[in-house]
Amino acid sequence: NDLSRHTYILRRTMLSLLALTSAWAPAPSGAMPILLSAHMSCGTAALSTGKAGLASEQCDKLSMGMRAEESVPIVHRRRSSVSQMMADAKTPPKIIICGAPASGKGTQCELLKEEYGLVHLSTGDMLRAAVKAETEVGMAAKGYMERGELVPDEVIIGIVKDRLAESDCKENGWLLDGFPRTEEQAKALAAAGIEPTKVLYLQVPDEMLIERVVGRRLDPETGKIYHLKFAPPESDEVAARLTQRSDDTEEKARVRLQAFHKHMSAVESCYIGIISYVDGTKPKTEVFAELQKSLE
Ligand code: AP5
């Protein structure tokens, strides 16, 4: 009858919940349990801390009435703030910062690097250095960069993987700026077992980005980023030596933006649960405060 059917369903639900709770219980003290989702669209396992800490596949299975122990395995992971991680030398933070061209990635990386002592790796800077040094990679990348197009995945993936394997990155943690920009690049990181702790996404509308691109200037001596209107140089001496990137024209910025919009949602879907969206339209210090909050 109805009453016994409802009692049965209630009992099964409670058992499922109990199974989940007991699986979570032995997590080390201070550690937040996180489920390892085996269904991520990148094709490899990735962390998910979504609603109620459940990976969506697991939510689906539970809602279909499957028992908890039949769903994907539960793995205990420590979800720590960046400052906690800094204190724990064994788990240095690994952060990806993404956003459209001129959304402020480089500007914020200067501050994040100073605050947390992470190794800052900008694929744009690495490629520009390679072009300048006329290396094989530089020669392969040059034309694409000049046109504002993405450099082919096979040119960039190897350099990034090699750089992340170096000892300074392993010891201090890293801040990856401008990579991955395609699903292929995200998949390559995951396949190499490189899993970020956190992904930060700076959101800025396109028209604001164009204004930022055309007004950007760089100090070749210090590497500092300026903007003629929003972050003008401190002295005439600095102003006199500022340079402009060859791809910082409105025309090329529109090509770069197009590439960004084409690929970004696939990249985002690889990092569900560890991605934080930050309003990049605010002044630099406010954006930084928001980023810090996301890292807590
Ligand atoms: P890259 O150098 O990475 O260029 P990008 O992604 O287009 O990013 P930007 O460096 O232009 O901007 P940003 O977000 O760092 O902004 P910034 O802080 O400087 O890549 C260049 C090229 O290399 C690519 O086009 C591609 O060809 C190739 N490439 C690189 N990585 C690749 C990859 N993974 N795969 C394939 N190809 C790759 O700020 C911009 C301006 O705004 C500055 O003037 C700044 O002062 C100002 N500003 C910053 N924040 C604020 C704020 N809050 N308010 C007001 N102004 C601000």
UniProtKB/TrEMBL annotation:
CDD domains: ADK. Keywords: Kinase, Nucleotide-binding, Signal, Transferase. The keyword Transferase applies. One of its GO terms (molecular function) is ATP binding. Residues 1-31 form the signal peptide. PROSITE patterns: ADENYLATE_KINASE (PS00113). It holds the Pfam family ADK. The keyword Signal applies. It comes from the Eukaryota. Belongs to the adenylate kinase family. This is Adenylate kinase active site lid domain-containing protein. It comes from Chrysotila carterae (Marine alga).
